[in-house]
Write a structure and sequence with these properties.
Elements (H helix, E strand, L loop, with lengths): L12 H25 L17 H21 L19 H22 L1
Length: 117
């Protein structure tokens, strides 16, 4: 492993030989440690096997998840009715209120522009 920013071409032959020797020592120590701990001697991790779930297990998981959601929904208070007539009417602004707001905003922006000059 090279240090960040270090270029392999800038190393001397002696430095490369020393790095190779150190790497070999590290590998030997890793093998020795695995032997002590009872781990397999091969350093590369075994590839994971793709073990798909059976249909029965998927059904069991789906059933338990549905039960969990039913429990959560059951604990909440009743949801508001889905009747569209029960929804509150959207508030609209009267033409007089719109005109009043428009004149106030025009005055505000005129004053703001006059202040910048």
């Amino acid at each position: 492993m090279l240090i960040k920013g270090m270029n392999l071409h800038d190393l001397t032959v002696n430095q490369l030989k020393r790095a190779a020797a150190i790497k070999e020592q590290i590998e030997n120590l890793n093998k020795e440690l695995r032997a002590i701990l009872g781990a397999p001697a091969q350093s590369a991790a075994a590839p994971k096997k793709n073990r798909p779930m059976s249909a029965a297990v998927r059904r069991k998981i789906a059933a338990s998840q549905k039960a969990r959601w039913a429990k959560v929904r059951g604990a909440k208070p009743a949801a508001p009715s889905a009747n569209p007539a029960a929804k509150a009417k959207k508030k609209t602004m009267s033409p007089a209120a719109k005109a009043k707001l428009s004149t106030k905003l025009k005055a505000y922006w005129a004053a703001k522009k006059a202040g910048k000059k």
